[in-house]
Amino acid sequence: MKLKPEVKLTRLSSQALLAMLVAERVYKSLQLDFVVTSVNDGKHMPGSKHYQGDAFDCRTRHLNAEQQNLVVSDIRAKLPPSQFDVVLESDHIHIEFDPK
User: Are 63 and 71 in contact (CB under 8 A)?
Assistant: First the structure.
């Protein structure tokens, strides 16, 4: 696991940490670098789960479209959908703890 230099892990929830470890294993199983680009640092939408420490973003710029889709589907398969959202954005994967 690599962290973008400005990433702050303060207030990271245990649920987000669990999801981060799951995501890392998925990337590793596909022999891909796993880089966390944001936790509760940077600018996010008002009310974002990032500010509560319940969300993080991971890098995708080094992945082709097929790899991105595979990573997202594998992460979704390993995290309970009733508790986590895994969203492929234009330049990253957003993962958040959001129990329904």
Answer: yes
